């Protein structure tokens, strides 16, 4: 048997002893039912709210922006590997504790939800099935062939090894731009005699990941990467944001990821003999001369699919089956319909209390809240909460739990 908001509203009217719109309008009743349902959702964490999404985890990259891809994320339920690999469960931690664990090299499988700048991030500490392949550490300009700037077709100049500012290892490639050098609105670093590397297992599967430092992003537009078996047989791809979809940041390291499957092939590249790499730093015609652009930590990473289970913030669907996050019609269907229809009673108590509070009838509101608390207590005892609670790291000074 299924229920609709019409049934809930009938019960709310009974609690109010009023079905007219003289005191409370139809929209006020629907708003109160929406609020009461949302409160029930956060209190109970029922399985009917649980959804899942697949996330491509890249070894060594810990923060994943899920703001757009999982817009209805209300709370976390679980993080899992694919079937057959779930021999070590993920622990949910608070973001501060997990950030510390990652920095000190903890190998505990864990995740956290972190919020910043209006975005939601899934923070993951995981030993991936696919370790990153380091193609170039950027610790030497000549250890894997010779890196150079293209001073003819680009504005790059003065390539040096920077042993002061780097993101990995002991150095990074540092260069300047002279915008009058070529007028092509790009600065190019390349290597054409790179030590031949077999990446055939990564073709169309893995992602090229690297770190760039941009002194000023005001006119910076994108970075284009090339990899191939020669300057006429390669794949190329362009990124306009960092790996998480965020805009490039001035004066900080930005991690960039370009999926091989998104790259455009030119000629007949041989993925088993990669010896050509090139990076174009692209900008608009308004760009002026600048110094200290940097490139570091070039690697190839095969993604591992992880399953993120979460509590959805949707309150139900409309009569066409479309997800909704607030009720706007009595034909709307709450998320628990057909499974927990008796939640109508609990929600109606709380909705009536909200409406009484709005009308200043505080005694009636207290009475309805009492009925609500009693009803909610009984439900909590009967049904499990699917949400995975946060834990905190506990470390005793002088002891290392990672060995």
Structure description:
The chain has helices at 5-16, 26-44, 95-103, 343-359, 362-382, and strands spanning 50-57, 63-65, 73-81, 91-92, 110-116, 119-125, 133-136, 148-149, 156-162, 172-177, 186-191, 207-213, 220-230, 233-239, 253-259, 264-266, 276-283, 290-301, 304-312, 316-317, 323-324, 333-334. It is α+β, with helices and mostly antiparallel strands. It folds into 3 domains: 5-48 and 319-382; 50-130 and 305-310, no CATH class; 133-302, Jelly Rolls (Sandwich), CATH 2.60.120. Strands 7, 9, 10, 12, 15 and 18 form a 6-stranded antiparallel β-sheet that branches. The chain has a 6-stranded antiparallel β-sheet with strand order 8-11-17-13-14-16, with no helix packed on it. Strands 2-6-5-4 form a 4-stranded mixed β-sheet, covered by helices on one side. α1 (5-16) packs across α4 (343-359) and α2 packs across α4 (343-359). The model is unreliable at 394-403 (pLDDT under 50).
Question: Which features characterize this protein?
Answer:
33% strand; 5 helices; single chain; 6-stranded antiparallel sheet; disordered C terminus; alpha+beta; 22 strands; 19% helix; Jelly Rolls; 403 residues; elongated
Short characterization:
By secondary structure, this protein is α+β, with helices and mostly antiparallel strands. The protein has helices at 5-16, 26-44, 95-103, 343-359, 362-382, and strands at residues 50-57, 63-65, 73-81, 91-92, 110-116, 119-125, 133-136, 148-149, 156-162, 172-177, 186-191, 207-213, 220-230, 233-239, 253-259, 264-266, 276-283, 290-301, 304-312, 316-317, 323-324, 333-334.
